[in-house]
Amino acid sequence: xxxxxxxxxxxxxxxxxxxxxxxxxxxxxxxxxxxxxxxxxxxxxxxxxxxxxxxxxxxxxxxxxxxxxxxxxxxxxxxxxxxxxxxxxxxxx
Length: 93
Prior knowledge:
Layout lengths: L2 H16 L3 H11 L4 H5 L3 H14 L1 H28 L6
């Protein structure tokens, strides 16, 4: 295995270790949605705290999130992958 293949493999492994999972986010939404548990999981700390203190915007944010979670997971994963690839010297397009 040459150096480039090794770096790619390490970058992919690093990404897999931080990648977020949509089913997990939905499970957290079901169990802790009113207090923003799914948003904490996705790294949206500011919004999570807002949900925590407003009980999910009196439930409105919580209901809206059921339609937004999948897209948010994809966006978080895309950003994390790009950051990791850039850290290894790759441009992820």
